[in-house]
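Its record is set out here:
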Amino acid sequence: MVREILLGSVLGILVFLGLDGIDIWPIVLLLGLGSAVYFTGILNRVGNKSSRKVSVSHVTTTFQDIGGQKVAKSELKEALEFILKPDIITRLGIRPLKGILLTGPPGTGKTLLAKAAAQYTESVFLTSSGSEFVEMYAGVGAQRVRQLFQEARSMARKEKKSSAIIFIDEIEVMAGKRGSNQSHLEYDQTLNQLLVEMDGMQVHDDEVRVLVMAATNRADLLDQALMRPGRFDRLVRVDLPDREARLSILELHTRNKPLDVEANLDAIARETFGFSGAHLESVCNEAAILAMREGAEVITTSLLRQAVDKVMLGERMDRTMRHEDQKRVAVHEGGHALVGELVNPGSVASITIAARGMALGFVRHAPDDDRLLQTVSELKADIQILLGGSTAERLLLGEQSTGAANDFEKAWDIARQMVLSGLSSMGVVQEEALSPEVLYHTIRDIIAEQQSIVDELITLHEHDLWALAAQLLEHETLPGEAVRGFIA
């Protein structure tokens, strides 16, 4: 009501001054600018409240709900002791941890670990993303950081809890190295406010204990001031699961699904080297979808293997190929599989000429054990397997095709890795000291040496390769056991 009266009074005065012959346009312009500033401030305040997507959730996720990650869970539990045992922490004079940074590849369970930490400590759990703190308006990000910490304390008091966990996902967006953004200093101001808030987190008997947890897969981008002790005190590495952890994750995600009693999850765990927890969850989900599509009552090993292929390469494509092209693909993939079995017996899990995604066919390998390090002989064997497809085309069909372009690229990368790792005839080298010509010829020599070996293998087993290609043309997909049957 007051605003309406004020607005009417201003309009009346302007009309009176105009009728009296006074130039009112400068006054109108000033009033317009003032109104614009006023309403922009209102919109910013409303935007700050509405766009701040901080989620306060009552989590039920426990550490038992997370497959694998034994080391990460153990280290995280130890870091949470200051929340669970404040009396012992005070008696021993231990400074409470202020921040825990979870770092690792995407899909490894960093967010799940943060939720489990909140449930483990019975803390209020607030979650947000680094991008929610970055705006074009100066000071907005810093204000949101202050509001986040205030909200954590107020929510903990409201729910009568003594601790709160703030989880910031993709923290590298708001906490990158200062000075890297030349357009404006809003990023730096937001980071500065986060540093101030973490420095000011003093713990007293009557205050809420606040722990900041953050996740990133690019720890190298973070500002060093944030990484020092007293801010993020613990760096917890959340790596890709090993074979035992993959089996645990598969068992976890199939416990609510009708799994065939003869389903071999251990074999699936063996064949999914390099998969993250998110990949494995998707495998179980896709297998259930395939079972529904086929009208199956239970999920079998075959459906799980099909799901692995779908997660790796995408949905099967409905492409009509000429018989000559199918024959070439069969020979090509047969060459990969045959060389793979010869240089690394028992490694081929399956072979198919069914097109998926951009691949016209593929061979899926399953090593006996997860390899964290590779020797010279293992790297050379990988190059030989990659060269097997193009060599089979050249020796059996008379010429190669463009289908081997990706194989050559991977083979070149492995050979380059050998040179830079000191595993070539040059010994220990420094990349900057190598001329492009020397590096090029050294890589060429490594690949040429492996190519001569592959030529001999394909020539020696030409009859076996023709038989394998014929079976692929008939059945389209063969298990690794069938491939080994042709070589025995």
